[in-house]
Records
---
Amino acid sequence: MDLIVAVDKNWAIGNKGRQHVNIPEDQKYFQKITMGNVIILGRKTLATFPNGLPLKGRTNIILTRDPNFTAKDAVIAHSEEELFEILKDYSDKEIYCVGGGKIYEMLLPYCRYAYVTKIDYAYEADTYFPNLDKLENWKLIADSEEHTYFSVEFYYLKYENTDVKEIML
């Protein structure tokens, strides 16, 4: 399992249930990486998708504690254990954790690679991603040149978890 996230310079990922900024180039990058694969996300993250619907061309697995939650064209898991049981059916696919904050926190130890879009700006935020530069087992293994979207500068970074926990699939 890997993860993909966009963070600001303070590793913030959102405020009041919304992303800070939508960068078309980054959205294409996200689509390129996740298309045809499995994405794991929380119910609140699903609500931020276009029309609140699962993304087409991917298997969407929604992790929620709400026993009554349903979503058309998505698989629902209600616990980490149930999620790992479901993932056994997708052992032939790439699996990506795509947020939000609580889902990233839960699945971070199981992720081998982190694809991070680092935005060189500090936004007002109430949700943060762990600062991988300060975590002993996460190493930066690739970075891009500067990209710009109007006045916003951003970089594509790739980190590797040197102590990944295995999921028995």
---
Amino acid sequence: MSKNKPYLNITLRIMKLKDGYGALPKLLRVRWMGQLTDGAFQSALASFVLFSPERQPDAVKAALAFTVVLLPYSLVGPYAGIFLDRFSRKRVVQIANLIRAFDLLVIALLILQGSTGLLLTFFVLIAFGVNRLILAGLSAGLPLLVNKEVLISANALAVTGGTIFVVIGGGVGIGLKNFLNTKTTGDSIDALLILVAAGGYFLAAIFASALGKKEIGPMQHEVSQEARGFGEMLEGFHILRKHGDALRGIFATGVQRGGITALTLIALLSERNTYNPPDDPDAGLRGFAYALTIAGIGIGLGAFAGPFGVAKFGRHKWMRISMLAPTLFLIFFGLFPTEFMMILTAFFVGGFGQSLKITNDALVQSKIADKFRGRIFAFYDVAVNGAIVSGAIIAALTLPSSGISLTMPWLIALSYLLAGLILLRKSKFSAYSNSTN
């Protein structure tokens, strides 16, 4: 485990770059602009699909919306390594952002026409599928820009900063919607917001042009010419078996993210149908945005605490603590399903979840050679997003339309408890602490 001092002069430590190049700020600018835009795009999409007066959501419809968003991650993920381990990741990221920008122009037109059918779903799938290439490429390239001893902090900055920008983007989108409500009505507001988002993705593509062709990899001597798609993803799984702690950490991260998805569905339904008048969807959207904002603050603080926890307890023990710590809040939320208790629970689940995620990202990045890193993250993405979809499906089968349930928060707590005690138990999880590339 690295002995770096957590967040002691964070700026200087993060900027301690390999070979003296200052590419990390350029990578962060691409990632954060894209994720700021993600938040605005997703808020407009949620407003159109789930928070329109004529569209009353139940648990199944909400879960279906989540599945539509997440399905491309599982379909594109196995093939991401084909591009990211063979071609310039800078070019892949740049072209993917341009594709996403043009795709949103089509989505804006469809929303302006009031389309809610398969055609809209198809183009939304493209938007989120392309996003998978971008985030996986930036994650795979990050270890080439910083020294290994600051990798946890670099992940905290990149991943958590991105998550916070998603929240900010969502807030900006909702704020613009409320402002435009006084100027115009109907689906034209959501279409206009998506046009703005298209401009954001175009700007991210411009930012990507500042990166060098091979600055975020892959390195020339590590480029493979074989292309096997799902076979490559399975190869990533077999590589990870040599690093059992990284593999167990990926599965634990999946469990944690699946629980967050279920909790998000609880928040969406309860804010839409219980905590606010069902005939006032704008109030429900504002309440949901407020809950996400508080969770986003928890995510930021959790990332900040991550390197401290790793330095004090060690990487493996801190991940176990992060997995187990939120269970008590989930139990109390099941017993007292108030809006305050839901937001408090979201704060701690988001915070400890982000701490787990950035620590495990650094664990995976530090142990895998760059020539394999694209396919490793392809497996990582598919495994985690499969768990997220599973969490949405289980929530849909369990939750009433009100969103109020004793069962669901306790199921999340039980899954976290089992993951912490079985997947991350010391005798197995820490046994691989000295494994290398």
---
Amino acid sequence: MIRFGEKYKQWNAAFDAGQCAALGKPYITLHDDTIVHPLKEVDGAAMAWAQTPQQVIEVLKYVANES
């Protein structure tokens, strides 16, 4: 999970997302809808985008059950 928001270092999160994408590793972004547009490319490469930690858990449960 890669978390974006005012309290988090955006450049670190963006770097982590880029590393995951470059390595073909799935990731989930976590941020509110106020920064959807700036993160459209990051979200586009992500497995999923979530607005709450609970949504991240739901995605992980879903993916785990699909395996």
